[in-house]
Amino acid sequence: MDRNDTLTGGLTDVTGLRVGHARVPGERALSGTTVVLAPAGGAIAAVDVRGGGPGTRETDALDPRNLVQHIEAVVLTGGSAFGLDSATGVMAWLEEQGRGVRVGFDPSQVVPVVPAACLFDLGRGGDWRARPDAATGRAAVEAAARTDEGAPVEEGAVGAGTGAVVGRLKGGIGTASTVLDSGITVAALVVANAAGSAVDPQTGVLYGRYFAGCATYPSPEVHAAAERRLDAAREKNGPPPLNTTLAVVATDADLTRAQAQKLAGTAHDGIARAVRPVHLLNDGDTVFALATGATPLPATNPLALNDVLAAGADMVTRAIVRAVLTAEGVEGPGGTFPSYRELYDID
To answer: CA 43 → CA 143, 283, 305, 340, distances in Å?
Structure first.
């Protein structure tokens, strides 16, 4: 196992951010919701959508030309467009905390703006109607609020990654972080659920490992056996599943809304390094950016933002590798989706 497999940093290394997951209950349910909770008072936020089939909510509010300056939470959810209802539960919880855009004289008179994006996982557990709702969203935000600051983020088939699939493999949630020489932290959390593949069909190497420069090549025999098992699963599963990769890229840098939007856009490069092809008509690939503003950009370097932009894309690639490596295979009435680790015998 190479060094990038054992990195433990994650989105919560950006001080003040918390992450919570919730799963839809039921034996034939394979879906859930993940909430990224900002510090009280909110964070600068932006979004960039590259997929041709997105399902989103409140993304127009993040346009730098529009009114809302800070948001309190971002929702990533399964359930396709039905799952966007999970944001309603998050919105209700935030209102109870008095967190949101103040619209009246009373401090309790707030409207929480909760951007959300969904991925397609309908029927992957066997029950087409088992999808996140407002109760799932509330459970996820409450889970986030209960965590300690800086608590590790659970990865794999949890939250919005419960039913995620990457190509023919089981996908899930992964996260990664880094600290720049300037002291700025940049991190990403990704729900890897793509039509494209994370694996080079010629070698069996994860595309994201090529980027790291330390790819571990499986033997030709192991790779051939993995391909045979994937072919068998594909015949059983029928048509390829629909998809969408979702990400939150965060930093403690003091960014403007326009700078945050640039960060969300360049972070898509990280998806393109780790999944091929990407941004298809039936993908809904969406990246949110959050900036908490705790650390100023170096005033002596007019191009200091470039380091943040580059790191954002890098962390997305690493997070996708983590998502694939931490996912566990699933076999059930909704299909057979083996994990990369079991196919390539990685401990």
So the answer is: 19, 27, 18, 35
Rg value, the chain, Cα: 19
Q: What is the mean pLDDT of residues 257-286?
A: 95
What pTM was estimated for this model as a whole? 0.94
Q: What is the pLDDT of residues 118-176, one digit of tens each?
A: 999 999 999 999 999 999 999 999 999 999 999 999 999 999 999 999 988 999 999 99
What's the CA gap between 2 and 14, in Å, rounded? Answer: 25
Contacts of 153 (CB under 8 A, 6+ apart): 10, 11, 12, 19, 173, 175, 189
Enumerate residues 6+ apart whose C-beta is below 8 A from 163.
30, 31, 32, 78, 121, 124, 125, 157, 193, 334
Residue type, 183: G
Measured between its terminal Cα atoms, the distance across the chain in Å is 8
Secondary structure (DSSP) of 160-176: GGTT-EETTEE-EEEEE
